């Protein structure tokens, strides 16, 4: 699952507001309907340039985080006010076609946290748009363009406000997730440090004492010194076994535990996890490899695929086990990222294979053989 396609998709979505600037063709056309003086042209071009700068700035700041909401609200209010001033200043030159500025203003006021403010100011823009009919400037025949403009004004404010809310919620979720990951990493480091201290502190102290004793007895009592050295060897072997067992525990607590962690991560991202069928008993190396593969796949789903559902199945095959992880995200057959490349290398080291199908979402199929090496397999899985 490569992040290239979602990144391109996000870039297009971020640039999408610039396409709406095409509707400035209406006030430009209204201005060009009649010959204008140099002063009128200078006023029109200057205000239009100022509006464009304000519009681009507001939509650049719409890429908000949970901590920049106040900055974004100030720019949204500035954008709305600037659009209103531009409309009134250019109304004698553009007429009703200048109503496009009111629609732009409603779209910009949506990018702030207060729903009531967005709707009330959008209604104010609608009232301003209707104002020329109250004064008799427009005739009933002009209603053909007024009705859709009123609808566009309200829809622009509400839709952009909803988009703003989603961005803030996503930013807050990402911030919480990063904090949880940081706290989990800190807790894991503390646990490892505590375990290693408890595991090796006493053992190494005993080894040092017995080694010193053996050195002192080497000339006076060689037999006793040899016995102490053998004892050091025995203690060292026991410590090595205990370290290997501890490292094995650090590598993972099994596929079931990894599925539980995957569900927590996917739930936080608004993705549903479906596990089809019961999980069969797996050899330790296969289970460690499957857990690592699931972790990497879920990480990619959360970060890149924009999926709504992930399906996981693990079945027995004629020569081993097959793990299938399928999502309904963007899919694609673009270049593989480092995560997927690393998964392939681990699978090859285990004697298995990994295939990817990006036609409908992304489907990863991992085939684990029955004869995965124990210690070697585990070491390669966690490389």
Automatic annotation (TrEMBL):
The chain crosses the membrane at residues 12-32, 41-61, 81-104, 116-137, 143-160. It comes from the Bacteria. One of its GO terms (molecular function) is kinase activity. InterPro entries: HATPase_C_sf, HATPase_dom, Sensor_HK_TwoCompSys, Sig_transdc_His_kin_sub3_dim/P. Residues 166-193 form a coiled coil. Pfam families: HATPase_c (PF02518), HisKA_3 (PF07730). Keywords: Coiled coil, Kinase, Membrane, Transferase, Transmembrane, Transmembrane helix, Two-component regulatory system. CDD domains: HATPase_UhpB-NarQ-NarX-like. Residues 289-372 form the Histidine kinase/HSP90-like ATPase domain. PANTHER family: NITRATE/NITRITE SENSOR PROTEIN NARX-RELATED, SENSOR HISTIDINE KINASE DESK. This is Two-component sensor histidine kinase.
């Amino acid at each position: 699952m490569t992040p290239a396609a979602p990144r391109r998709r996000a870039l297009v979505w971020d640039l999408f507001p610039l396409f709406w600037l095409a509707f400035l063709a209406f006030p430009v056309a209204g201005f060009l309907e009649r010959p204008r003086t140099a002063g009128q042209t200078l006023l029109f071009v200057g205000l239009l340039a100022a509006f464009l700068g304000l519009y681009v700035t507001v939509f650049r700041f719409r890429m908000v985080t949970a901590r920049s909401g106040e900055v974004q609200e100030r720019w949204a209010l500035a954008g709305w006010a600037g659009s209103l001033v531009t409309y009134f200043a250019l109304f004698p030159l553009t007429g009703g076609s200048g109503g496009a500025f009111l629609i732009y203003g409603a779209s910009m006021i949506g990018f702030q946290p207060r729903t009531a403010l967005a709707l009330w100011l959008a209604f104010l823009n609608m009232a301003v748009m209707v104002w020329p009919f109250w004064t008799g400037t427009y005739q009933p025949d002009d209603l053909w363009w007024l009705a859709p403009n009123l609808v566009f004004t309200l829809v622009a404010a509400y839709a952009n406000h909803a988009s703003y809310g989603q961005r803030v919620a996503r930013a807050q979720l990402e911030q919480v997730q990063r904090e949880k990951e940081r706290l989990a990493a800190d807790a894991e480091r503390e646990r490892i440090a505590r375990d290693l201290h408890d595991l090796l502190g006493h053992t190494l102290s005993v080894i040092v004492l017995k080694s010193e004793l053996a050195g002192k007895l080497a000339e006076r009592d060689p037999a006793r010194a040899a016995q102490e050295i053998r004892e050091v060897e025995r203690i060292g072997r026991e410590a090595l076994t205990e370290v290997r067992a501890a490292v094995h525990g650090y590598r993972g607590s099994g596929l079931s535990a990894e599925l539980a962690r995957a569900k927590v991560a996917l739930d936080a991202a608004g993705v549903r996890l479906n596990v089809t069928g019961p999980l069969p008993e797996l050899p330790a190396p296969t289970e460690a490899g499957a857990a690592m593969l699931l972790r990497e796949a879920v990480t990619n789903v959360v970060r890149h695929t924009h999926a709504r559902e992930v399906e996981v199945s693990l079945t027995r095959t004629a020569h081993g086990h097959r793990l299938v992880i399928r999502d309904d995200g963007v899919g694609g057959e673009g270049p593989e990222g480092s995560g997927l490349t690393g998964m392939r290398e681990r699978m090859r080291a285990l004697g298995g294979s990994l295939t990817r199908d990006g036609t409908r979402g992304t489907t990863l199929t991992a085939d684990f053989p029955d004869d995965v090496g124990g210690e070697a397999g585990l070491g390669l899985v966690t490389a």
